[in-house]
UniProtKB/TrEMBL annotation:
GO annotation, cellular component aspect: mitochondrion; nucleus
Keyword Membrane: yes
Keywords of this entry: Membrane, Transmembrane, Transmembrane helix
Protein name, entry field: DJ-1/PfpI domain-containing protein
The keyword Transmembrane helix belongs to this UniProt entry's keyword annotation: yes
Ranges where the DJ-1/PfpI domain occurs: 35-199
Domain of life per record: Eukaryota
Length: 208
């Protein structure tokens, strides 16, 4: 009888775990409906930060499309690492309704984004439709160049503070969120940056 009760208790625990697992799975699926992220890459992007952020966002179930600015299927990052992209910005920016655009540090990539009319159009579209824009390090210089989010609170690499503080409420915090604009100070906070994006797009429970 004791063995029977122990077995019954064990089965009940298994059932509870299974129900919790199914509930969590359903929550993730429901919370991820139509949550698409376009992650911009260009030559000179910080590879460690890019890979970390993409990995964490995908672990959370977000549909992350990695896009270059041209038809090349790879970009060469800061350390010489080549990353294969999914597509180009020209192929998808008008086809998929993205909920967020993300790009990270790397001054060479930042200068490429600054000169890109396609990036300007994408960012202005996201700002107009009140969708998320997330960037880090030197990335806020792209926001400045394309006149995105003026007078919002942001952070960046301290190297660019003087260039930004006339047009933004600049802070020295590691990660700053102001409405749909998320900025990260430096690549060492890549995981926290990704979790902040998840927290605001998917909810605090999933980020934890």
């Amino acid at each position: 009888k004791i063995l029977y009760l122990m077995s019954l208790n064990f089965l009940l625990k298994l059932k509870t775990i299974f129900i919790l697992f199914i509930s969590a799975s359903v929550y993730i699926v429901k919370s991820n409906e139509n949550k698409n992220v376009i992650f911009l890459l260009a030559d000179g992007t910080n590879d460690l930060e890019a890979i970390s952020v993409i990995h964490v966002l995908r672990l959370a179930g977000l549909h992350v499309v990695v896009a270059s600015l041209d038809k090349n299927d790879t970009v060469t990052c800061t350390s010489g690492v080549a990353i294969k992209v999914d597509t180009s910005i020209l192929s998808v920016s008008q086809q998929i309704p993205f909920d967020a655009v993300v790009f990270v540090d790397g001054i060479k990539a930042t200068n490429i984004f600054i000169k890109s009319e396609d990036v300007a159009v994408l960012l202005k579209e996201h700002e107009y439709r009140r969708r998320y824009i997330a960037t880090s390090g030197s990335g806020p210089l792209v926001l400045l160049a394309h006149e995105i989010g003026f007078m919002k609170s942001i952070t960046s690499s301290t190297l660019y503070r003087n260039q930004l503080e006339d047009h933004y409420k600049y802070t020295d915090s590691d990660i700053v969120v102001d409405g749909k604009l998320i900025t990260n100070r430096y690549s060492g906070k890549a995981i926290e940056f990704a979790l902040s994006i998840i927290n605001h797009m998917q909810g605090e429970e999933l980020a934890e």
